UniProtKB/TrEMBL annotation:
This is GIY-YIG domain-containing protein. Pfam families: GIY-YIG. Residues 166-245 form the GIY-YIG domain. It comes from the Eukaryota. PROSITE patterns: GIY_YIG.
C-alpha cells in the first residue's frame, strides 16, 4: 500500500512476547493455540454512566451489558474470565452499582419476549416520566429514551437576550378585570404578537380570541409586562403545537380559558403531567 502514494505510511504491528493487541482483544499464541483476553488501553478509566446520574436505567444497563456480554461472547481463558470479572466488579463499585447488576446481566437474553413493531422516543427528565411510558406497556409500541444532559448541550454557547419579549414560543394573556386566560403560540417575537392582539382590540377585529373577549365584555387589558406571561421559549415547529395544546387543556380543566375548545377529549398523558406539576409545586 505504501508504494501507491508517498503519503501512505501503513505500519505492520508485530507480536511481542507471543501476543498482540487487536481492537479490544489481546491475542496470545501458545503451542500453536490461540488464547484471548480483554485488552484495555493504559489510558482507560473505570468511568461509565454513574448510578446516581439522571439517565434512564436502560442506558446504564447498556453499559453494564457491554462489559458483561464480552465474557460470554469471547472465548476467554479461565484466567482471563476471572480477571475480567474482577475489573467489572471494580467498575461497578466505583460507579456505585451493586454487584447484583453484574450477575443479572451475565444471564443469557430472553428471546421469548414479544416483538413490538413501532418505537416512540421520550426525553428522560427523571423517574416521573415512567408514569407516562407505562401507558404503552400493553400496546404495540416500544419505548426508548433520550437525554438532554449531554456534553454537547453543556458546552453549547448560549446567546442570552436581555429582552425576553424578543423571543418566540408559547405565551399566556390574562384579562385585567377577570381570571380568564388565552394561550397562544408565535413564531415571531412575543412583542409583535402582543401588538397584534391590541391592534385587533382597537380595530374591533375578530382574528384574536383575546381581543374578542375584551370587546364582548368591555373589560380592560394590561400592558405587555402584566398581560403576557411567557410559558415556553421554543422555535416554530411541532413542539409549539404540543405545548400550546397542553396549556389550553390545563386551562380548560380549570374553566379559565378563552380559547376554542381544542382539547375537549380526555388526554391521559396531559392529566399525568398536570398532576406531576401540582405535586412538584407542593
Amino acid at each position: 500500500f505504501n508504494t501507491m502514494h508517498h503519503k501512505l505510511k501503513f505500519k505492520m504491528e508485530q507480536q511481542s512476547q507471543n501476543k498482540i493487541n487487536y481492537l479490544d482483544l489481546t491475542i496470545m499464541t501458545n503451542n500453536n493455540e490461540l488464547k484471548f483476553e480483554i485488552y484495555r488501553k493504559p489510558t482507560s478509566t473505570d468511568l461509565i454512566l454513574h448510578n446516581t446520574s439522571c439517565d434512564p436505567y436502560e442506558h446504564k444497563e447498556a453499559a453494564i451489558n457491554y462489559l458483561c456480554n464480552r465474557i460470554n461472547t469471547y472465548k476467554l481463558t479461565n484466567e482471563g474470565k476471572i480477571k475480567e470479572e474482577g475489573i467489572i466488579t471494580r467498575i461497578l463499585v466505583n460507579n456505585e452499582y451493586s454487584t447484583y447488576a453484574r450477575d443479572h446481566n451475565t444471564k443469557p437474553p430472553n428471546n421469548n419476549t414479544p416483538q413490538k413493531d413501532k418505537w416512540t422516543k421520550f426525553t428522560y427528565f427523571g423517574p416521573s416520566i415512567r408514569r407516562i411510558t407505562k401507558l404503552f406497556h400493553n400496546t404495540n409500541i416500544k419505548i426508548t429514551f433520550k437525554t438532554n444532559n449531554t456534553i454537547k448541550n453543556f458546552l453549547r454557547i448560549k446567546h442570552e437576550t436581555t429582552d425576553k419579549y424578543n423571543l418566540c414560543g408559547v405565551y399566556q394573556m390574562t384579562c385585567k378585570d377577570c381570571d380568564l386566560k388565552y394561550v397562544g403560540q408565535t413564531g415571531c417575537n412575543f412583542r409583535t404578537r402582543y401588538k397584534e392582539h391590541i391592534r385587533e382590540i382597537k380595530m374591533n377585529g375578530q382574528k384574536s380570541k383575546f381581543a374578542q373577549h375584551i370587546l364582548d365584555t368591555t373589560h380592560n387589558y394590561h400592558t405587555i409586562d402584566k398581560a403576557m406571561k411567557i410559558l415556553h421559549i421554543e422555535k416554530k415547529g411541532k413542539m409549539l403545537n404540543t405545548l400550546e395544546s397542553f396549556h389550553i387543556y390545563e386551562l380548560t380543566k380549570q374553566n379559565l380559558q378563552m380559547n376554542e375548545a381544542l382539547t375537549d377529549s380526555y388526554n391521559q398523558i396531559y392529566d399525568i403531567l398536570i398532576k406531576t406539576n401540582q405535586t412538584q409545586e407542593i
